[in-house]
Amino acid sequence: MDFDLSWILLGLPIAFGLGWLASRLDLRQLRQDSRRAPKAYFKGLNYLLNEQQDQAIDAFIEAVQNDPDTTELHFALGNLFRRRGEYNRAVRVHEHLLSRGDLSRGDRERAQHALALDFLKAGLLDRAEDALRRLEGTPFETQARMALLAIYERSRDWPQASDIARRMQGAHQGDFSTRQAHYLCEQAQARSAQGELDAARALLEQAVATAPQAPRARIELARLHQRMGDAAATLRVLNELAEAAPAALPLAASLLVEAASAAGRTDAAHALLVRHYEATPALDLLDAIVALEAVGAPERAREWYVRHLEREPSLVAAARWLAGEQLTQQQFHPQVQRALEHASRPLTRYRCAACGFEARQHFWQCPGCQSWDSYPARRVEEL
């Protein structure tokens, strides 16, 4: 059978022509798609740079409609919704992403994290907790555990918070020993309020062992011993506090005076307070020293305020010294004293180092920003 080369010569141009026509059609479609999606995308980006979020959302919605398979557009749109407080729309975008079967593992984990953030911002803590727990074993695990920790702290679920902190400590995701001690102290306070003093003491002793350098557990344990009528144990714990965390001794200075007076060991307590005051002058240490000396020699005790004024200017110390002085025009003394006390009162507050929130009492967790150990043991005037 003879092979006819004319068919080859005839077929080659036809095949070439069909291929060229098909490529042109594909290129035209690709160009049309690329014109629609990127144009809307870059329009949205431009609106974002100009802080026009409403127009940016409209542009991204248009881009998503033109190219529904692009995950980055969905993430951008969902994040915009969350930033604007439209949490329901953000949730719908991220749930739509998670429902797609063609989503890669990395994008699925990213969408799960974004969904958890939506629930957190919306205040849906139960749903946020469930979404965060699904991030175990993903690159977002550390962030998810920190968010869970914040949820349990906000809801005061201290056993759950302690479990998360223990797991993070075991995974070398940070040192959470001090925070675990706080959780134990919180549980001890609850037990103490219910009259379960022995259980509270056990929890506080566990807190001391968990974070020996943290002052709160020892201060709470000393207060518990004082409540139980054991002044000697109170003094022992406070002496340990002075060695382990001397900067926190001003927070327990008044308790030290009370326990020392009850145990008949005021001389030892006085020596301890003076030693720490000389090293680091503090108003609470000063008041405790004056309280101890005032029992036998009130006038000599008040000289401590003058000595403090020689070391550093203090309106608080001046007001307290003046309270016991006899003025030449004594009839004006009450008015002057009230004015000084009014002016010095804000200086006796504590201030959070993280957010600046001021309070009359010392907090271990700031009521404003929820930070732990952000309140120094010194008054505003001393900072």
Can you give keywords for this protein?
elongated; two-stranded antiparallel sheet; cell membrane; Rubredoxin_2; 2 strands; Serine Threonine Protein Phosphatase 5, Tetratricopeptide repeat; 383 residues; transmembrane
Outline the fold blueprint.
Elements: H1 5-49, H2 53-66, H3 71-83, H4 87-99, H5 105-122, H6 125-133, H7 141-154, H8 158-170, H9 177-193, H10 197-210, H11 215-227, H12 231-244, H13 253-263, H14 266-279, H15 283-293, H16 298-311, H17 315-322, H18 333-344, E1 350-351, E2 358-359
Antiparallel strand pairs: 1-2
Helix pairs in contact: 1-2, 2-3, 3-4, 3-5, 4-5, 5-6, 6-7, 7-8, 8-9, 9-10, 9-11, 10-11, 11-12, 12-13, 13-14, 13-15, 14-15, 15-16, 16-17, 17-18
What does the model show?
The chain is elongated, with a radius of gyration of 34 Å. The chain contains 18 helices and two strands. It is an all-alpha fold. Strands 1-2 form a two-stranded antiparallel ribbon. Among the domains are: 30-150, Alpha Horseshoe (Serine Threonine Protein Phosphatase 5, Tetratricopeptide repeat); 162-237, Serine Threonine Protein Phosphatase 5, Tetratricopeptide repeat, CATH 1.25.40; 266-327, no CATH class. 33% of the residues are buried. It starts with a helix and ends in a 24-residue tail after the last strand. 70% of the residues lie in helices and 1% in strands. The mean pLDDT is 83.
